[in-house]
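Lesson 9: reading folded outputs for more than one chain in a single document. The general rule is that every protein is listed as its sequence immediately followed by its structure tokens, and records are never interleaved. Here is the first one.
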Amino acid sequence: MAQSELTTGLETPSGKWREDENFPVGSWLIRPALRPHVHAFYRFAREADDIADNPRLSAEDKVRRLDRMGEILEGAPGTESPAAIAMRASLRETGVTAQHCHDVLRAFRLDAAKRRYRDWDDLREYCRYSATPVGRHVLDLHGESQGTWTYSDPLCDALQVLNHLQDCAADYRDLDRVYLPETDLAECGSAVAELRAARSSAGLRRVFDRLLDQTDPLIAAARGLPLAVQSPGLRRETGVIVTLAERLARRLRRGDPLAMRVKLTRGDFAAALLFGVWRARRWGQA
């Protein structure tokens, strides 16, 4: 993308779309009328994420663009962000709060400038804005109670941490951004520079396993989500997502994110669909 293209609008699309995610985004499992609104939120978050991850933009320019997205979302005139315009229309139609959108913008402002995370609590605070708003927005669209956030928040945080582990080498190489907590790196005898290696050192493997150990209880807590939601379609979709989180965590236990990108296979998605829907049906009859 040429520099001139970066200045004609706010958005700098990376080409990624919902099919590239580890979990279904507004899939056929949920009510058809709600799918466009889930897609609108995903598009808004995706475009903001792409701004924050664009290596050709300065931190100041990234924040300016993200701020402008928030202004357009709130009704400011302008056509520079089609995603914000579409999101504004979705919020108007559904009555869902704009706070979830502003929360993800806050996370991506952090990404524009923050390169390191101190400890697990610091990382979880980032997830509070980068991940949990996604689940909360979908639950709000379905009219679910805020009590479901108790289960949705840990699921979204777990998925975010798993994604950080998947992308740890690329994040460091391309953006000099490291989500692996500094305290874990130090205590496990590892260092940031080891992320440039072709394979993980023993110390870095200990860091991965420690983060997975801390993620497992989040996934365990998330198993209550399908039981808590009232919408049958959303119960099925969340059942699938919980199952995908379990499978991805297991793959990261066995795989090396430096040697290759550890990711879910088509078989994982097929198995998660069958098992997740079965679990959701069983929970729905409980």
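And here is the second record, again sequence then tokens.
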Amino acid sequence: MGQRVGIEVSLAIAEAVKLANVDVVAAYPITPQTHIIEHLAELVANGELDAEYIPVESEHSAMSACLGSAATGARTFTATAGQGLELMHEVLYVASSMRLPIVMSVANRALSSPINVWGDHSDLMSVRDTGWIQIVVENGQEAVDNIICGFSIAEDHRVLLPVMIHADGFYLTHVIEPIYMPEQNEVDRFIPPSRYPLPLDPDNPVTMGGFGPPYIYTEMKKAQEVNIRAAKEVILEQWDKFGKSFGRYYHPVECYHCEGAKTLLLTMGSTGETAMAAVDKMRGGGKDIGLIKLRLWRPFPFKEFRQAVRSAEVLVVVDRAISFGGPGGPFFSEVKSALYGEDNRPKVVGFVGGLGGRDITVGQFENVVERGIEIVQTGSEQEFEMFGVRE
């Protein structure tokens, strides 16, 4: 089970990377991710982590260095946030297409302009189609556990895909929480040694990421799509294995007071705990409300999600990013798409809030639920709605 310690979540993430016995860390500092790689640099400098630390000149270079190290079979980690994730954006596609099992922690941060270093999900949503597995955590314990799971998932020979672990900037990265840190021998038993099946080797040359003309490119992309969808079963398998080893079980969709609830609230990330308080308050007032928290963003857990909402009449989706000029937030759009054509599906309404690190309060969750029910009951056509905007 490990020892329970009070620790800043960023430092706990770095300690989890150390427990995973990584071989290479290549990263560039950017708020609010910097504490993660600073602590890793300290661990390497002090001899507590036997790894190569590559101080690169940009996030683009960080991911490029990760490509090379992972391609040789080295267990590889990096971290970034916001604009840094955007700077490495083009290289993200290469990592997934080349089937390189890199693990990256993303401290979710609002994208410019104006310059904002606080957390929302605009960076998370900007990379949803890069081919990476994406896991979104709610608190520090989930961050630590899923960093460890990330390596076991990415390196499984049935997967061989890069994994992002998303933790909301400042709301998680800079807070101190009580966290159970696993023992080294426990993690060693959980994560087998990295054995990349096709490493770069001068004695056995291979071609990686070569030229793909039209006659083969489509088939390559189809294979990539089939692979990431198939990875879901391995993710579930590894989460179950982790639960049996450490006593903490994870699921792609978490339900809180969902059974029989006619109205469900849907969140992703650190706001889930505030939403739980709001649901408790509303249920205490006699309202039939439940909460769904989505943890696995890519591959999207269609089966589990549809099962979770099957009995609801209203589904209220809270986005922390905008799809400019679109039907609402990107989370809302994907949820509606996932339910399209289902016989038993709730009416879906969406709201955008919490941008640029602005707090989402219990009262605001109550308001959006009431507004969502009102929209459905009156049969009105919903337009883009943002809450928490100062008049």
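What the second record shows: The CA atoms of residues 139 and 270 lie 6 Å apart.
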